[in-house]
Structures are given as structure tokens and as C-alpha cells.
Amino acid sequence: MTHGATGAAVGSLEDVLERVRRVPAIHDFPTVDALLAWFDDLVARHPALVRARRIGTSRLGEPIPMVSIGSGPRQQLLFAGVHPNEPIGFRTLQHLAGELVADAGLLASTGSTWHLIPCIDPDGTRLNEGWFADPADRTAYSRRFYRPAPVEQVEWSFPFAHKDAYFDAVIPETQALMRVIDEVRPEMMMSLHNAEMGGVYYYLSDDVPGLVPALHAVPRSLGLPLDTGEPESPALRRIAPAVFWSMSTRDEYEYLAGLGLDAASMVGGESSAAYAARHGTVSLIAELPYWSHPLAEDDTPTSTDYADVVRAKGEALVDLGTTLSRLLDEARPDLTVRTPFLRASEAFVPMMAVTGRAEIARADRPETSRPATAAEVFSNEDVVRCFRLRFGGMLLRALAAEADAGIATARVRRVLEQGRAVYEEWVAEAEGVTGLEVLPIEKLVGVQYGAALAAVRCLTDRDVTVGGDG
Prior knowledge:
15 strands, globular, 470 residues, alpha/beta, single chain, 15 helices
């Protein structure tokens, strides 16, 4: 892949850190309409520098725009809203775009054209807007939570074929992103995600010289912890503390097959990083929590065996899946509105028990027989709390949709009340966890913003070094 001539680097790492510390205070997240209006205004005010064009259409007919800033030969692609319950990237793109327009020196130093997709999944994002004005409240967040079924997620609906697994049900939003990736052939791509609880961690497709230390330095400069607890998947391979190789459906398949499970039935599409790899693109994800806890990076060994921690999580997830399945199955004969909440519940509810059984199988592996760290104990326990709040809340939204439409049968109303009673117990348990800290949004934006600048800086330095060696 050719990215054109290399220019001066973004600046020293200290320059990057100084920039991230200057991100102004942010207290909420924009709605889709407000976000797109902000970018429309930016284009109108800077027509010579900022260009916008439509790259696709959502499943509900919403135009999906992309904004391009600058004209440098290096191509950088960032997109937000890839999971619609993860809106930190909306503010990150606003801040990045504003800085690139306001600071000619910054834009010139990157030698880049920056392609920004403000919201790749507007339909899903609108279903989360009920908590955007109050993102600090974990309970309010979970009650208004929406996450698409895996086959409807932009990030995980790229084509995939491996052994007996095959996926080609690519949704329109992903098709739009595929076209952009193939057209732009980005040097660096950031899929803007965020987690919920813990600390900062990253996914990286290439171990670019100097980038990992920079990725560690950015959150440290903002007083944010790294997350050294349980990774999202046991299939992940670590580059450094809180930095992992990009997630791959192929790796997940092989891991599940190694446990003796039916891997083909448990995986779907591939990721954006795997798709962009055909162009030599370096993919970077900075995962950021809304809330943190002192145990997020506490690597102190405990007296608890790691195998017992994993097994307990697995058993709790099986129980969660059983509880939610009972509610869903009882109401299913009378459910008439196929809302996104119902489609997502039909995917995630059985997934809980499947995931739990996979963890129980992992707990029997010899390598799990070791002391668990404090971070691992906390993060495994909180995964259960997270999934109860997420998927319990989403199932309640599916049932409430029938009641809100005035068509809920007596059976559906009864199940809805039963579900609410169970959910309130889960909420009370989660609210009983002490020591949680609400993280300032501007610091989280600063991590993604700083990671993007650091990546371009390190890629520029790498190209200069390679060119000098040649």
C-alpha cells in the first residue's frame, strides 16, 4: 500500500499529551440530529477545507454522511456509532474535526486527509438517546440500553468464511463502510468503541514501533487507569498490558473449537479490522469505560483460584440465560411487534447460557489453576452485573413495547411485571458496589483523540525510518 510522501510528524509525544489535556469539559452526548447538524455547520463554515458526501443509507432510510478534512496524501479513517450504545466517539470526532479546522499546523503536520463518519448506525443510536443527557447514571443507562443483535452490528457483520462457518448477510451500513475502506485504503483506521466499567484498553492490528508506550502514556497523563482485568474474550492475545491484538472471528472460532464446542454456531461475521487488513491498514481501537473502580488495574494476587473465578462467572451466566429465557419463552407466543429490542433479545438471551458453558469448560483447563488477581476477580464479577443490566433491560424494553402500543395480552403484562421484579434485584445488587467513579467524558475523548494522533505520529516515524534504511 502506498500512502504518499511522508511529512513532518504530528509532534513529540509530549505535544500529543498536552493536546489531550486541553480537551474542554463535556457532560453529555449528542443525539443523531444534533451530531449531524454540528458537522453540517462545520462544512458550511469551512467549505474550502471540509467536504461532506453521502456514503450509504441505513436500514430505516437514514442517509449516512462522511466528512473529509484536508488534502494530505496519508489517508486516515475514523468512524463512530459502530456500536450504538458507545457514543464517546461522537464527541471524539467533533473535537478532532474542530482541532483540525482550527489548527492549520496540526493538520499540516499529519500530512493527512482525515475521513470521519460521525455515525455509522443512526437507527441503533436513536434507541439509546434516552440516556445521552445523563450518562453518569449506570442504572439509567441500562434501563434505556440498546445493542443490536450481532448480525445487525456494523462492527461484526463483515463477510466471513472459515472451515464450516460462513457469513455473508452484510447489512447496508456495513456495505457502506466496506465501500469507503476499499476506496480510501486508509493508512490508519479507528473504529471508535467504548466499554462500560474498568479502565482503558486497546486493540491494535500491528505493533507499530513506539505506539504501545504512547498508548499507555495517554491515559496515564489524564489520570485514567489501564484495565488489566479479564479481557473481553479468552481468545485474545496480549501485546502488552491493556493492549491486545485486534479481535478476529477466526481466532474466536479456533478457541471455541478447541473447547470442543460447535464454533460455527457461535460466531457470525468478521470485524472491520480484519476486512481493512487487505489494504495494509493499521487498525486501532481505544476502549474506554464510563465508570471505573480502584480494582480495575490492581494486579495483586488474591487467595482465590482463577479457575474458581471463571467457573463462578460461567455458572452465573448460565443462570442469567436460564432466567431470561424463561421470561422470553413465556411471553413469546403473544409477542406481535418485532422491535429491534426483541430481535436483540432473541440473540443475546440464549447467548448468555452458551457463553457461560464455554467459561465453565475453560475453568477446567490446567492453565486456569493459579491465583487470580484482584482485577480479574472484580472484572469477572462485573461482567455478570453488566450483562444482567444490559440484556435484562433490553428484554424489558421488548415487552414494554407491546404494553406501550396498547396490545399487550394479560400474559405479556404478567411476564413484564415478573421481569421487572427480577431486574430490580439485579439493579440493587449493582448499586451496592462501592468505590465506583464516574469518569469525565472529556478525559475519555482525550484518550481516543490522543491515540489517533499518536498512531499517525508513529506511522510517520516508521515510514521515515524505513525510507532511511532503504
